[in-house]
Amino acid sequence: MADNIFQKIIDREAPADIVYETEEVLAFKDINPCAPVHVLVIPKRHITRLREAEGSDEAVLGKLLLAAAEVAREQGIEESGYRVVINNGRDAGEIVPHLHVHVLGGQNLGSLPGG
Ligand code: AMP
């Protein structure tokens, strides 16, 4: 079993401001937000990062994106727009080794992807 902060949030061993949950996906507010809306969407089943995702993860990867869109809708940023980011590896600044999708919005995010 992976031992990282997101696994602890899934297991309810660490606190989080959970905003959306299904059988396979959990979404909670980022503890250090980069925008007025900054939510992380994660699979409950451990996938270390996108690089480690396999064919058998195809369905849950789709569910992560659909959940991201639903979170954006519920957070009120569907019309204004939002950015969805997955950091993979060192150069992307990945910190937590449990796949997560950042949903960012609520302000103009600039023109660079991820910028
Ligand atoms: P990344 O750089 O893509 O690995 O992003 C990890 C994100 O997790 C960062 O934006 C952190 O602020 C966030 N984070 C770390 N610990 C927690 C936590 N306990 N609750 C919510 N977000 C967290």
Keywords:
115 residues, alpha+beta, 5-stranded antiparallel beta sheet, 20% helix, 22% strand, binds adenosine monophosphate
Word description of this protein:
The chain is an alpha+beta fold. The chain has two helices and five strands. The chain has helices spanning 5-10, 58-74, and strands at 18-21, 25-29, 37-43, 82-85, 101-105. The chain has a five-stranded antiparallel beta sheet, covered by helices on one side. A hairpin with a 3-residue loop joins strand 1 and strand 2 (25-29).
How would you sum up this structure in a few lines?
The protein is an alpha+beta fold and 115 residues long. The protein is built from 2 helices and 5 strands; from the N terminus they run αβββαββ.
